[in-house]
Amino acid sequence: MPSTRRPSYRAGPRRPPAARGESGSSDVISASKDSPAVGQATAPAAPDNVLSFPEPKAKRRRRILQGTIAALVVLIGGILAAAVYSPVLAVQTITVEGTRLLTPDQVRTALAPLQGKPLPQISDNDVAALLQPLVQVKKVTAEARPPSALQVTVTERVPVALVRQGEAHQLVDVEGVKLSDNADPASIPLPVIDGGGGTLPKDLFHAITEVLGALPADVLARLSNASAKSVDAVELKLVDGQTIVWGNAGEKELKAKVLEALLKAPADPKNPVRTYDVSVPRHPVTR
């Protein structure tokens, strides 16, 4: 059965009527709550509970690995820097091998600026630059022997002839490089070239030295002199007075082998050989 009660309201205290110019009613119902001012951004409320998830194992391993690598790079860099600049590895002793025309002391004197320099800072180019004034040196290699020794191995130019310049004799290699100014021909078993680069044309001079450079040492030691009327007419003389007709510089390795074999052949006293002609090496002639 529906209720017969009626809601009752208790009137609040009357407010004076609004002053002239003011708007509003006499009874205002208002509700207030701490809220930001108009136009102010509202920050999201922080949750009461935040769940933290553990770092993935793969990511953690990668981070540890990257840190370890970075530390190793720094450590190795420090070790290398210490080695390169450390006075503990400074050069104190220089040993020299491979010299025949030069003496080890001549090489050590030229390399004196390397004394006290750390071994890791020395290269073959540094050593070669200091030895450049020594024309006898064709190639050089250097090897560090820690803590303070430097091993230098010299490859010298090979002399192939003596060039007569007036009363003097110059020792030269296959490229015509002068290795000494005044050599004693009596003590050096090498052929003599008359004139050299002064009166002998350069092309003839190089044709002769190229031929001499192809000969083995035992054959060179048996030669007395070498000459060329043209680049195709190189001739050699043995100390026994025999003549070797060589021709041009073509097939020089084959000609050298043929000549060496002919010189080793037993001599016939009844028919002594005066001339060895290897200008056509596949058909040599003796007469």
How would you describe what is shown here?
With 287 residues, this protein is of the alpha/beta class. Among the domains are: 69 residues, Ubiquitin-like (UB roll) (Roll); 128 residues, Rossmann fold (3-Layer(aba) Sandwich), CATH 3.40.50. The chain is 27% helix and 22% strand. A nine-stranded mixed beta sheet has the order 6-5-4-7-8-9-10-11-12. A three-stranded mixed beta sheet has the order 1-3-2, with helices on one face. β5 and β6 form a beta hairpin. The chain is elongated and about 120 Å long. The relative contact order is 0.06.
Brief summary of the model shown:
This protein is α/β, with parallel strands linked by helices and 287 residues long. It contains 7 helices and 12 strands.
List the topology elements.
Layout: H1 57-85, E1 93-97, H2 104-110, H3 124-131, E2 137-145, E3 149-156, E4 159-165, E5 168-173, E6 178-180, E7 192-194, H4 196-199, H5 202-214, H6 217-220, E8 223-228, E9 234-238, E10 243-247, H7 252-264, E11 275-277, E12 285-286
Parallel strand pairs: 1-3, 4-7, 7-8, 10-11
Antiparallel strand pairs: 2-3, 4-5, 5-6, 8-9, 9-10, 11-12
